[in-house]
Amino acid sequence: xxxxxxxxxxxxxxxxxxxxxxxxxxxxLRPGDYEVGFQRTNDIVDEALEVFQRSCxxxxxxxxxxxxxxxxxDGDLVNAAAGTYxxxxxxxxxxxxxxxxxxxxxxxxxxxxxxxNDALYGGIHNPDVVCLVPIFHEGMLIAWAGAANxxxxxxxxxxxxxxxxxxxxxxxxxxxxxxxxGQGGEIRExxxxxxxxxxxxxxxxxxxxxxxxATAADRVRTRIVELADKEGRDWVVGLMRKxxxxxxxxxxxxxxxxxxxxxxxxxxxDALGTQQGLVRSAYLTxxxxxxxxxxxxTGTSPENTSSYHAHVQSTVGHVANYVYSNVFYDLPISSATxxxxxxxxxxxxxxxxxxxxxxxxxxxxxxxxMSATPNVFxxxxxxxxxxxxxxxxxxxxxxNAMVIAGLSQWGLPxxxxxxxxxxxxxxxxxxxxxxxxxxxxxxxxxxxxPDVELMENEFPILIPISQHWPxxxxxxxxxxxxxxxxxxxxxxxxxVFFMAIAxxxxxxxxxxxxxxxxxxxxxxxxxxxxxxxxxxxETGVGMDFRTLVDQANxxxxxxxxxxxxxxxxxxxxxxxxxxxxxxxxxxxxPLEADPEAVTEDIRQGKVSAETxxxxxxxxxxxxxxxxxxxETERLRQQxxxxxxxxxxxxxxxxxxxxxxxxxDEILVNYGSWPEAKALQPVIRM
Length: 685
What we know:
Oligomer: single chain
């Protein structure tokens, strides 16, 4: 079996060397061709993205967890339109695998439709499915087009595509290496049947999303062929190579402007699937030398028996999420921007496991990568006179994905991940302002939260409360954005199945910047035997989350547990869950926060008066809703003196700290203490 090695996949992320005909085509471009052509490719992928989202059936696809992309004939990414940047890394690997292994048999022909979702062959995790089509012009292969999105059903042992109890890839459902599923511009019926069989919990969603991918990729193909007809084939080939040359030059110039050095961040989580315990999810050392970056993940915890693993390209994809959003936001989404970057990801860790490992929850273990990356770049970029404003603390990266399944109020089978909670997480605090409240999905910066009315129409749930979650942010001079909370009540169906995917219980993975605070963790709250709809008028429950929880005034059996929950049924009227999204990490010392800004947060219900007093040391006149500035300054000076009195010499602190060790009970998946090396091999059958 030609399964690509981790080394091959990392190499395929890099650019292929330009051919002489490509370089000749670049030289033939006229002044203005590059600028006009670049915008044409933007318009093409933007149009295809709009077609894609409007054609999707899954809630994640509709919400924007998608990418449409254009590649060279060799498979390098030239440009893309994206909700998520993850797919910028994986699709070139799949194209290059097809070219290397399938060029002769079954061959690459005009009208082909290729598909893949197996992380072994270049994917993120198997819910992320890619369709690719070759682009021919007058019989010559000149480019590829791709469309990828997250479809929340794979036929795994649990609904939703991300089974928390999977212990190997054999329990994850459909894992498809690159295969040709269509010819002559049409998907084959036998392949539609395969997808329908694996998606039997929600066949209409799985099959419709597959067709949407092929449709979006074909729209790119159609427009590129039209462009080649108008401007000439060599013009298109030269334009694509020129775009990559400019993107690489821009990336190298920006990297070279920063100081050389090593910058480190180590992140942790305390849950894998349903098993709680400490994991060093990323030990990242970023080394900057000249115009190059090396990401070294040596020291990350070893692989385990859960589904919380990521293959190497998935790890790189989670770096890309931050880099494209904040560092290279003004450069093309292109393989060229990653040309100056190298990755060292030791084999046998959660970020480079055995081929048999389950990786359906790759995005969960990679919260460590997504949380460490902002911190190392903050340390690197903060000294730059130009780039310090681009620094941002980590977003919440909670990704507490919640899945519901069963028969809808329309009598149709469904199994879907609800996009609202994950698409309303808080952004991290910034050097000159707070993070954005409920800004979006850290995995999918352009994702959008669905309207409550759409959710209630699509699924058998009622959502009586949907609002910002007070105090969910990491506090600081500039706090992180707050997340949201909804109440989901089973409605118009006798039973709804529910599961939740999480990687935090008592420890939040994101770390703050420069004296800020980490955001809160997310509990698993539900109320059984609530009969919520019938009892609502008689209980007089207010439509405010804080009041509802503090007074527990919804009748029934309240349950507060770890947020990661295996599949369980809920009856009509039960509160299935409180759908939380966490806030972003804080930036800077809360004692430096503007008292007026803190007071405004109290007025808007984003920060409680208790937190303002305890964390920000802001004195507040509740009746007039105004800060008491002189008293605030007195309280802050008092707290600063208290901090100094609690301080200790570093050598004394370090000696004590080095002797501390968590209990063995919570180190089962950590590895050796403190090095996080493997203690025993993982056997998967």
